[in-house]
Structures are given as C-alpha cells and as structure tokens.
Amino acid sequence: MTKNIAILGASGYTGAELIRLISEHPGMKIKALGGNSKAGQRLSQVFPHLRHLDLPDLVKMDQIDFSAIDLCFCALPHKTSQEVISKLPETLKIVDLSADFRLRDPADYETWYGNPHTALKQQKEAVYGLTEFYRNEITTARLVAGTGCNAATGQFALRPLIAQGIIDLDDIILDLKCAVSGAGRALKENLLHAELSEGYHAYAIGGTHRHLGEFDQEFSALAGRAVKVQFTPHLIPANRGILATCYVKGDAQAVHNALEKDYEHEVFLEVLPFGETPSTRHVRGSNFCHIGVSADRIEGRTIVTAALDNLTKGSSGQALQNANLMLGLPETQGLMMAPLFP
Amino acid sequence: MTKNIAILGASGYTGAELIRLISEHPGMKIKALGGNSKAGQRLSQVFPHLRHLDLPDLVKMDQIDFSAIDLCFCALPHKTSQEVISKLPETLKIVDLSADFRLRDPADYETWYGNPHTALKQQKEAVYGLTEFYRNEITTARLVAGTGCNAATGQFALRPLIAQGIIDLDDIILDLKCAVSGAGRALKENLLHAELSEGYHAYAIGGTHRHLGEFDQEFSALAGRAVKVQFTPHLIPANRGILATCYVKGDAQAVHNALEKDYEHEVFLEVLPFGETPSTRHVRGSNFCHIGVSADRIEGRTIVTAALDNLTKGSSGQALQNANLMLGLPETQGLMMAPLFP
Amino acid sequence: MTKNIAILGASGYTGAELIRLISEHPGMKIKALGGNSKAGQRLSQVFPHLRHLDLPDLVKMDQIDFSAIDLCFCALPHKTSQEVISKLPETLKIVDLSADFRLRDPADYETWYGNPHTALKQQKEAVYGLTEFYRNEITTARLVAGTGCNAATGQFALRPLIAQGIIDLDDIILDLKCAVSGAGRALKENLLHAELSEGYHAYAIGGTHRHLGEFDQEFSALAGRAVKVQFTPHLIPANRGILATCYVKGDAQAVHNALEKDYEHEVFLEVLPFGETPSTRHVRGSNFCHIGVSADRIEGRTIVTAALDNLTKGSSGQALQNANLMLGLPETQGLMMAPLFP
Amino acid sequence: MTKNIAILGASGYTGAELIRLISEHPGMKIKALGGNSKAGQRLSQVFPHLRHLDLPDLVKMDQIDFSAIDLCFCALPHKTSQEVISKLPETLKIVDLSADFRLRDPADYETWYGNPHTALKQQKEAVYGLTEFYRNEITTARLVAGTGCNAATGQFALRPLIAQGIIDLDDIILDLKCAVSGAGRALKENLLHAELSEGYHAYAIGGTHRHLGEFDQEFSALAGRAVKVQFTPHLIPANRGILATCYVKGDAQAVHNALEKDYEHEVFLEVLPFGETPSTRHVRGSNFCHIGVSADRIEGRTIVTAALDNLTKGSSGQALQNANLMLGLPETQGLMMAPLFP
Q1: How far is C50 from D338, CA to CA, in rounded Å?
Q2: CA nearest to D307, candidates A201, A194, A177
Q3: Could you tell me which residue ranges the Semialdehyde dehydrogenase NAD-binding domain spans (chains A, B, C, D) (predicted)?
Q4: Looking at the DSSP assignment, which residues form a beta bridge with residue D174?
Q5: What's the CA gap between B209 and A293, in Å, rounded?
Q6: Nearest to C296 by CA among C242, C259, C255, C241
Q7: Which residues pair with C304 in a beta bridge?
Q8: Does residue C341 lie within any of the structural domains?
Q9: Whether A293 and A319 share a structural domain
C-alpha cells in the first residue's frame, strides 16, 4: 500500500531533492508540502524544475492533517526543527534532516550550536541516521536524525578503520572539498555566482565546523575512548559533491581490506580497487558513495578518499533510505538511479 | 516480457545517457555494448559513474549475437553509422542517434554532410524520430532516425506555428544557446575546460550548421512550400542544455494558443503560462521540454523560447521514447525522472 | 601632475573594477573611497583581492573633502546617484556609472525607471558617455553619464549602420548574452551559484529591459526618426562578458566595410576579418570590444556580433576612458592591459 | 634601454601569460616568438585575446636571430626544453619554465622524469628560480629554472618553518587544490569541459607527483637532513589557482610570526592576519601569494594555507620577476597588476 508522505521545509534544496526522489518512488505519495514563508504558492513557482509533477500547494504547517500521513520529512533549519517536531503528533514517524537530533548529549548540542536544546524528549528517542551503521535501530525508530553531509562522508571513509583500531586514533586529518549546495539556498554574498565561481578557499578552519560534534560522538563511541580528528572543509565552485581526503596512519592494504570487507554487501558504498580514487562527478545526483584507498610513498601513511553527493547520499537520499526502513519498504527502493554525467 | 537491448557506440555521451536511462527502465535489459575502439574494456573504466551497474563488457560489433536482441541503439558518428547499419540484420529494430538517416533526400544528405549516402535502402525506410509528430510512423517502423538536438528544440518551438500559418514564414530567426556536451567527447582544443569555461561565442554562423537540413526539410513539408529559417548556435559554458530563442512575426497570443492546444496532451512538452520563460537548468537530466511565449513591445513580434536537455530529450531520451513505441511499451516508461536541480 | 580621484560606491563590482584599473594608472591617485553602508571598514575587508594596495578606508560621503578631488566616480545605484550628485560641488568633475543621467528627456527617465527625476539641472548638463561617439563633448564636460553595459555593446555593433542607413531600421533584433556580474553584488536568489551555474535563460523579454531607453534615444537621434529595436537579454553562467548577436537586414559586406571604416582609428573597437566571430573570453578583463560580421545564407540578412567585458569596456573601463579625456590625459592611459585568458 | 625578448613555446598557456605580462612591461619588447608546430601563424590565430598587440609572427626556433635578444623565455615541454636550451648560444640569458633544470642532481631528474638528462652542463649552471629565496643567485645567473607551480605554493607556505625548525619535519602534509590551466593546453579527455566542470578528484595520489622532487631537494637542503612530505594534488573545476592546505605540527602563533617576519619586505608574499584564510579568487591574474595561518582545536596542530595563480606567480609571473633581476630591472616591474575579481 502506498505510503502517504509530508515534507516540511519543501522550499529548500533538501526539500526539492526529496520531492525529486519521491516522485519516482513506487511506494510513496506526497500528500502535503509545508513551507511557512511560501505558503499559498504552487511548488512550480518555487521550483520550476518540478512543474511536471502533480503536487499539493505549499501550506503552513498547521494546515496539514497529520493523521493521514505515514511519515514526515522535516527539512527545516536547525533550531526551527526542534520547535516544530516537538509539536507534531507523538506517533508520527519522522525523518529529520536538520542538525537538531544528531547529537545525543544535550550539552554537546549546546556547545556546537550555541543554544540550549528545547525538545529533550524527542532528542532522547532520536536515532542517528547513518543507515549502514544504524540499520536495526532505524528500522524500529519513530524519529531518525539525518546526519551532517560532511559527517556522513567522513564516517563512510573511516568508521571501519576506527572500529577495528587499524589506524592511529590520535592522528586523523580530514580535508574536505564541499560543493556549494551544501550551504543551502540562503542569500549570502559569498554564495553568489560572481563571488564563488572560479575560486576556492578553506572555511571553518581549525576545528570550528559543527559537524565535528558528530565526528567526536561517533568516533569516540566506536573506539571506546575519546577520538578527536582534524577537519578542514573547503568550498569548491561546483553545485553538488563532497570529496573527503583522509590522511591516516596505518597500513594501506589493511585499510583497503577492512573497508572492502565491511562494505561487501552495502549497495550504496562502493570501495574502488586499491589505488584508484573517486570523483564527485561520478556520483552526482545518485545515492552512491565511492571510496578509494591509496598508500603514500611514506610507509605507514594511507590516504582514504570518499565522494558522495551532499544532497542525495549526504542528506535527502539518506533520509529516503531511512524512511524506507521505517516504513517496511525495501531499503533501496527509489534510490537506484544512476549518477548524472556529464 | 523484458526486451533485450544492444547499444553500439557506448563509449560516447549519448551512449552513456542511454545506459543511465535504461538502467532504471522496468521493461528493458542491456545485453550488449559495442565500442570498437574500447572493445575489451569494462564500461566502468570508460564511465566510472556507471560502475554500480551489472553490464556486459564492451565488445566489437561483430562479437554481438543480434538474434538475441530486440532493439539496437546506434550511437555512432555519422557516416560510420550508415556503414554499420547497412550490415546489421534486416529485421533488427534500430534507433539511430546519428545524422545519417534524418534527411530523406540523398542529395540533401550530401549537401549538408559532404559525402554521398551509402545506405540508400535503409535511408528510404527510416522514419524521422521526432516522436510527438511522427508517433504513428515510429510505432511501426523498423529503423528510426533520431533528430538533431538543435533541430528538435527549434521544431518544438515552431512546428505548430508553421503548420497553421500563423507566423510569417519568410522571417524566422532561431538564436540557439547550446551546452558543450552536444559537441560530444571528442578531443578538441576549444572544448577544453580552460578554453571554454567563463566565455561564450557564436559558431557555424550564417546558416552553415548541418541541422539546418532538418529545419528546411521539416518546415517546408509542413508549410507545403520552401521555408528557410535563420539559425545561429552559440556555445555556452555549461554541460547540458539547449535554449532556443525564436524571433517570429505573428500575434503572440495566437502563438501561445496554438502551442498550448497542440501540446495539451503531450507529457514531455510543457507550454508555460503566457509571458514566462523557460530555463535550461529546470530540465537538466530530464526528458521535458519547456516552452515559453512572450510578446515583444513591437506589435506583431513574438518571441518563442524552448529549453531542453540535449542529451536527454535532445537525443538519448528521445531515442528511448521512440524505442518504447517500437517495442509496444508505454511511451513514457523509464522517462519520467524529474530534472536534477541544483 | 597626478590627479586626485574619489570613488563613491566603492563596495560594488564597478567600484572594485575602477580601483583595479586606477591602481595601475600612472596619472591618477585614489584619495577617497565612499561607501556609506560599509563606512569605517578597510577596503581589504570588502575586497580582499585589493589588499596589496595602499588605499584610504571607506568613509561616509560627507566625510570627503571634495576640494582636494580632481574627479569623482559615482558607482552608486540609480536614484541614489542623482540624490548624491545633486549635492556634490557644482564644479566637481564627475563620471557617473549609474543609469540616472543617460536619458536626456526626463519623461523617458520616468518611463523606464518608474520615478520622476530629481536632479534635472544636472541631467541637463550631463553628456552621454559612449566615448568613441561623444569624444568632444566628453572632453569638455563636467558630468558624464556612463552608458548601460548592454547599451554600449549594441551601439558598438550598430551605430555606424544606422547612421549610414545601410540596414533596415524597422527590423533590428539584438539577442544579448550577459554574464552575471552585470547584475551586481545584490543578494538575489537567482544569482546564487547553485541556482545560476549550469543553466541559462532569457529575462526582461519582450522589450522591458531599461537599456532600451538608451537604444531608442541614441538610434533615433542617429537616424533622424524613431527607431525601435527588439532586445532580449539572456543570463549566462559566467562572471564577465556581454555577447550581442544582432540580426539585421542589409548587405553583409557593406556592413563590414562601414564598421571597419568608422572604427579604423579606434584603439578599443576591433573589427574582425569578415566572417569571424568574437568571444567574450577573448576580451575578459580588458577594455577591448571585438566585433564580427557574417552574411547569413539568406541574401540580405547579416549578423553582427560584438563582445566586451561588461565591467571594463561596459562600465568602469569606459568610465576611466572618459575621465582621461575630462582630465586632459591620454585617452587610453591605464587601459591597455591585455585580456586575461584562460 | 628596452630589453629585447624572445619566447619559445609561445602557443601554450604559460607562453600566452608571458606575452600578456610583457605587453605592459615598460622595459621589455617581444622580438621573437617561437612555436614550431604553429610556425607561420599569426599569434592572433593562436590566441585571439592578444590580437590587439603588435607582435611578430610565430616562427621556427632556427629562424630566430638570438644575437639581438637580451633574454629568452623557454615555455616548452620538459625534455624538449633541455634539447633546445643546449643548442642556444652559451651567453644568452634564459629563463626556463619547464621542469628540466629544477633538480640539481641528474639522478633525481631521472628518477622523477623517467629519462636521463641530456644537458648536464646547463643543468649544472642553472639556478632554482624561487625568486624570494634565490634572489642573489638569480641576479647573476645566465640560466634560471622556473619552479613547479605546486612546488612554489608549498614552499611559500613552509620554507621559513622548515628552515627555523619550528615544525615537526617528519609529519608534513600538503593537500593541494589545483585549477585546470596547470595541466596545459594538451588534448586530454579528462580536461574537457564536459568531463571536468562540476566535479573534482585527487590525482597523482600517494607521493607520485613530480613536484615532490623539488620539495625533497629544497626542504632537505633547508633542514640539513632528509625531509619527505606527503603531497596530494586535487583537480578543481576552475581555470586558475592553486590552494595549498598544509597540515603541520608546531605552534600556530610561532608559525605565523615566522612567516610574517620572513616575508615582511616581500612585495608579493602577503601573510594574512592570524586566523584568516586566503582564496584563489583573490589572487587571480596577479603575482601575489596570500598566506594564512590558523590553529587547529588540537593543541600543537597548525594549518598553513597559501593561494596563488598558477600561471602568474606559479610560472610566468615568477619567470618575469626573475628576468627583471637578470636584466638589472626593478624586480616588481610589470608585475603589480591587481587581481581580476570577480
């Protein structure tokens, strides 16, 4: 039976990406689109590329009858999300794409996001949405917290290595190259085409990026002790994509073996042959993550690279993958589209 | 029953696009991939973005058992295509994406392409593949000739207006803006990123572009007399997309009415509300063509704009749409994916 | 003797371009930078690419001692510009880059810009700043009005043809392809990199673009009777450049001869050999305008293409060229830098 | 007195960049342009953006009268360069932009470039062209070897730190982001716009990039013992720019102090305020290198970032800076142009 879906925050990029994906999903139908600031508009006004779809108009959240909804995606800004979700029916299945429920410890949340958490009850029940590693918990969860897109990329590259202790836990560097859609549709000067194109730079340098909260939480839990990584993101003049270049200390072949073995049955995580490197252009618009392992010329130094599409596997594709599990649908349903190249 | 598909010329962009589309088509399966110069390679070496697919390796054409094939796509360069197709089994259904069978008159072919046609028998039976206008002929055809991508765009904008005589037939200007993938994967200096990006220019100016052969053939047939248009293409620093800006003389409202009426039941041809203009970014990766009509401030002057993705609706999507008809499948099957934006 | 220069509106793109150009001008020195909203900031905070220059900090306009200034560039938004300029000393030489003083008839100004002109005295004395055609008037002017960047491009392509009556004055079409910096540094959703890159579209279609006011004024004056052109701009995913494709009726060779003859001694206006077409990439960052003429296959139809950099020859370079004349300096001083390619 | 200049290899990007720069140099004049494969062509055919310049046509090398030349730039491919230079007059001043004379030890050259060096005599006399660090030697040199563009960027970031021993010499990681013009004008599939734009990837991963030869040579000489760094370049969809993100172990403030002090009087090396990060867009087309230092959240970890334009400060600008010294001209002459932004 077709599942009825609501999307809150449908006028942002992750909202649009959810609609794109669900429009071809055989088991879901979009019944409500929430977008407070643009309520009353047709979605084709906000996203003309979706004009061929027969979709409900954007409405205010309180106009939605959630009793008819099987699962609700929240693609709202952080802080807004916790306010909204705390008011939604307690039985409603929710996949949240914001940062609000990613960190288990409310103190961590306040540290990284600067404001106290106001939906502690929901925070407690939320399951971290990195599908491949929390599959069982997600399947039975009511509320799943989508991961940060950078956090997902780094974890796909490193989790098995940290869990198995085959790399030096005190010397991990993640140099990330992020495309611009990860910054959302906000009007900021540095996101203008004339500012951004033809140039690139590091930002949130030195360990200030909020996704570090997720790395700390997850990597420490895996290792059973505190693990702190270095993480420097860079903004690249492209629309979609994250490339993580991870510098670790450990045997390259052992690293490759660990990733290959752990991801052997994972449809979306593809470990390339040893020595090959992935490219963001080869995962664009898809739910795949390509992972490469290379040995450095210096013995004992290994480079793990991982590429995914921040809007798909990094957020909305991941969210749909989780929703499939929560609704008892096949995990990969609606997610097997090939990347768009060129 | 699933239809068995072969693709010749699988290492070019239209070949890759066919594979992308067919990979999600519920009624087709790729059984053979021909690519002479890269025979013996795995497709994932040639197109790493397709590495998740379970595909046959590239082979030489004569290694393919065509008796097991229901339909063959030929995505070869023109001239090569006619040589190959003349040697294929006479009963094999074929959709050709080259220029070789688009022009009905062999003399026209020689005029525009510079060499005599060497597969006259096949040329005679070929049906022009502009689906929305040759649907019946295509359904029963054995050999369908895919149209030029520019030719398709211009015809979607203008055919109803010419057929109904509501514009001046002697004063039609098509100013086209073409993305770079239309030039294929050939190694040409002007297609390098460092040359092409951040700049744009007109090419084949003054009526020398080969797609004019198609415009002349089709528009003249529609009008019942010779119609010659002006056509100037421009190369734009983007990967996918054609935008046609057509300057015609006629009443704008009548033009809009004619297009709306003729395309009322066409799934892929969307006529925008009067005065709105389409954008290539809103059809990227999809089989849709968006069409806009605006009145100029000078009375009796009308501007028709049309946008499509040259690799999808302009070639491989069109080819698949035709193949669906030829194989008795639903015309839109495998073609309803939403555009990729941003 | 070095001339002292002030720039009002130094925090926008045309302001930055003026500083870039003047920084290498041997006869000018920047003494004051006005930027009300960013007053108090160092210019290197607003434009880090200019950090190597020894420049005054941004100040509010009323902090500037204009008695020490030889010439003031106003790079302010229209409407603001007329308010500011009407309060500046009456003897101060000014080059205005806004739209406020381009149209001679106050009624035309109100028609195209929607508000009544409030600096009628200054408007009356302003000289239209298309250097190559108003050289004498500019040399002795106190107030020069920089032209629209699109208006400049179209006029370079067409003025000699209209003045000499060698094209049909009632059937002129300008299809312009404009890069994004022409839209300025304003925060608009459609100017975001994620929205703009990889796509393109027509805007202000049908004769609503304000630069038509300039075309009407200038072309009609040249012809001695009303001339109305069709003008459709398109937004292209590149940072700098305007390409005008002009469709006219007239003999192509005569058109080429007229342009070659009229521009024979113009340093910045280069007419290409007959049949060649210019590219925006070959004028980027320079004050040159490349112009091409081609015959269409239809007899009597001619295509004139012109390419320039909207921020240089289209605005700030033109402004500096005019300032040179007004200050008695060599016209080309500080303007001979080669384009930046690739 | 004006110096007469020859450029060999004028049809590549570094050749074109030399011409762009020299065209505005008050003390140099281009007397000969060598380009074997394009001999006989006018430079405006090869580089239309330089058509405004009065330049000699391209000729074969043996057609050049070197007795009239004060200094010759060689912008040829490596291996070709050593063959050519060994045949040039022994008294001719030469700035070579190839890789042929960068490595002092012939065995190192063979290791990294795969072929034995065939101009050992010239190699012996060649001076390494990193101007700021070899100024005296360059001033009196006959033959100067331009550095690798990546090698220059990394050295500007790290030399003072290695020389002063304030970072751990055994744990230095350089993650470089390189724009595409660094790959030259060669026809390679992966450099096509349709392949490259909208995606990015690591290449020459694991310590195989040839510029490591320079890092090893220079850093080891500075330290007085073997120093081996990790170096991973990435190809970014932009035309100009290199951004080096260097991960080092040492005190961030000490690192910043060392760079500020050593570069205090260097016109082209700008150390940003502590904690700020440079962007390639802010040095485009200029000879400046911007350097930033940030502390990581992990104590004792420091990130040094450096940005320059690979065609200017990374090759042709550096070459001109060296030529100025060799010819007794002011070091910065012709090199003070501001970056082009946007």
Answers
A1: 7
A2: A201
A3: 4-141
A4: D231, D246
A5: 47
A6: C255
A7: C246, C293
A8: no
A9: no
Using the Cβ of A164 and the Cβ atoms of chain D, whether some distance falls under 8 Å is answered with: no
CB atoms D199 and A241 under 8 Å: yes
Closest by CA to C132, choosing from C339, C337, C306, is C306
Interface of A with C in 181-240 (CB under 8 A): 181, 183, 185, 187-189, 191-198, 237, 239
Q: Which amino acid is at B68?
A: A
Question: Do B73 and B107 have their domain in common?
Answer: yes
Kindly provide the ipTM of the predicted complex, given to two decimals: 0.97
CATH number of the domain where residue A58 is located: 3.40.50.720
Q: Do B185 and D193 touch (CB under 8 A)?
A: no
Q: How far is D50 from chain A (nearest CA, A)?
A: 22
Is the same domain home to C154 and C296? yes
CATH number at residue A205: 3.30.360.10
Distance of CA A288 to the CA centre of its chain: 12
Q: Report the distance separating Cα A180 and Cα B290, nearest Å.
A: 26
Question: Judged by CB atoms within 8 Å, which residues 256-285 of D form the interface with A?
Answer: 275, 277-282, 284
Are residues B169 and B96 both part of a single domain?
no
**Torsion sign, CA atoms B323, B327, B333, B334:** negative
Structure tokens at A313: 């596997």
**Domain membership of residue C173 as a residue range:** 150-309
Residues C219 and C293 in one domain: yes
Q: How many CA atoms lie within 13 A of D328 on its CB side?
A: 4
Do the beta carbons of residue A290 and residue A272 sit within 8 Å? yes
Position A25, amino acid: H
CA atoms within 13 A on the CB side of B165: 4
State whether residue D315 is helix, strand or coil: helix
Query: Could you give the count of Cα atoms lying within 13 Å of B339 in the half-sphere of its Cβ?
Result: 31
Q: Give the Cα separation of B284 and A240 in Å (integer).
A: 14
* DSSP E strands, D158-280: 173-178, 201-202, 230-235, 242-249, 269-271
C73, part of any domain: yes
CA angle D85–D89–D92, rounded 5-degree value? 85
Residues D207 and D183 in one domain: yes
- Are D215 and D157 part of one and the same domain? yes
Is C246 labeled as catalytic in the residue annotation? Answer: no
Give the phi and the psi of residue A35 in degrees, each rounded to 5. -165, 85
Kindly give the pairing relationship between strand A301-308 and strand C289-295: unpaired
Q: Do D239 and B187 touch (CB under 8 A)?
A: no
Q: Strands A173-178 and A242-249, how do they pair?
A: antiparallel
Per-residue confidence in pLDDT tens, chain B, 342 aa: 899 999 999 999 999 999 999 999 999 999 999 988 899 999 999 999 999 999 999 999 999 999 999 999 999 999 999 999 999 999 999 999 999 999 999 999 999 999 999 999 999 999 999 999 999 999 999 999 999 999 999 999 999 999 999 999 999 999 999 999 999 998 999 999 999 999 999 999 999 999 999 999 999 999 999 999 999 999 999 999 999 999 999 999 999 999 999 999 999 999 999 999 999 999 999 999 999 999 999 999 999 999 999 999 999 999 999 999 999 999 999 999 999 999
Report the chain A residue with the minimal C-alpha distance to residue D202.
A277
Contact check, Cβ <8 Å, A197/D296: no
Strand A301-308, strand C143-145: pairing: unpaired
Helix ranges, chain D (H):
13-22, 43-46, 80-85, 106-113, 120-125, 135-140, 149-163, 193-196, 211-223, 252-262, 317-326
My answer on whether A264 and A215 are in the same domain is yes
CB C237 within 8 A of CB B279: no
- List the beta bridge partners of residue A100: none
* Dihedral over Cα of A182, A187, A193, A198: its sign: negative
CB atoms within 10 A of CB A169: 20
Which residue, D83, D86, D59, D88, is CA-closest to D71? D88
Assess if residue D321 is contained within a domain. Answer: yes
- How many separate domains does chain D show? 2
